[in-house]
Design goal:
about 130 residues
């Protein structure tokens, strides 16, 4: 039994999206670990290295292809499906990249507690307010 071409394309793009996602994650973890070990000499986490950008761009590329191929299953046209996937994935990927930079800056300035939602003062204020109302 032969697998339809679109199913094969979906399988391949899924595999490559996951693989490049793991590569990007490992590169990012390496950069954070390198910064942590060299805090005195490194003023920031260098997540914008060319190899990290290439891994992120490949991840974005494969996710765009994956989404376009998945949408084309509904027979809406390959060009229309590709347009929808580009319109959905590229702005989201850009916003995630910008947010990643902000999160890493917070990590540098305030340590891991700066990016932990439960350790913010707002949570403390809510707990204090709740206990005074009882």
């Amino acid at each position: 039994m032969a697998i339809p071409a679109i199913s094969t394309a979906i399988l391949f793009t899924t595999f490559f999206a996951i693989a490049t996602g793991f590569i990007f994650k490992d590169m990012l973890e390496y950069q954070v670990h390198y910064w942590h070990e060299n805090r005195q000499t490194e003023p920031r986490i260098r997540y914008d290295q060319p190899q990290v950008k290439v891994a992120y761009l490949l991840l974005t590329f494969f996710l765009t292809l994956f989404m376009g191929e998945c949408l084309s299953v509904f027979r809406i046209g390959l060009l229309f499906a590709g347009g929808i996937s580009v319109a959905m994935v590229l702005p989201t990927a850009f916003l995630v990249w910008v947010q990643l930079g902000s999160m890493l800056e917070l990590l540098v300035k305030g340590g891991s507690q700066a990016i932990d939602i439960d350790s913010y003062e707002f949570g403390q204020a809510l707990r204090t307010e709740a206990s005074t109302q009882e």
